[in-house]
């Protein structure tokens, strides 16, 4: 199915649910899905997608430290309540190498 064949009359929630399922399997596939159309871009930017996305350890790799897009993505995951993102952010704030903040870290780990 190409972009011209996409059913545009589906509700936003259906598109967001699709993005959530794709994101729960692969961030790379989620980013590719976001790039297919404006509708899917908006749907994949929904809070439900960020809450359910599966984040692998490679996304906390040191190469991401200075990547603004990666930090924005991870911040959105934390804001949406993504459990893995909350856990990792809590660990970083408690035991990380930069900006150690024990109180904020413990709050994220709760």
Automatic annotation (TrEMBL):
Q: Residue ranges of the At2g35280-like TPR domain?
A: 63-109
Q: Which PANTHER family match?
A: F-BOX PROTEIN, OS05G0482100 PROTEIN
* Descriptive protein name: At2g35280-like TPR domain-containing protein
Organism listed in the record: Stylosanthes scabra
């Amino acid at each position: 199915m190409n972009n011209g064949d996409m059913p545009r009359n589906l509700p936003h929630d259906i598109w967001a649910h699709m993005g959530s399922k794709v994101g729960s399997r692969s961030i790379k596939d989620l980013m590719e899905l976001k790039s297919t159309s404006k509708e899917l871009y908006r749907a994949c930017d929904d809070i439900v997608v960020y809450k359910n996305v599966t984040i692998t350890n490679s996304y906390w790799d040191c190469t991401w430290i200075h990547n603004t897009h990666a930090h924005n993505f991870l911040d959105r995951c934390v804001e949406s309540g993504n459990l893995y993102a909350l856990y990792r952010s809590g660990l970083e704030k408690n035991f990380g190498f930069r900006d150690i903040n024990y109180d904020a870290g413990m709050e994220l780990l709760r």
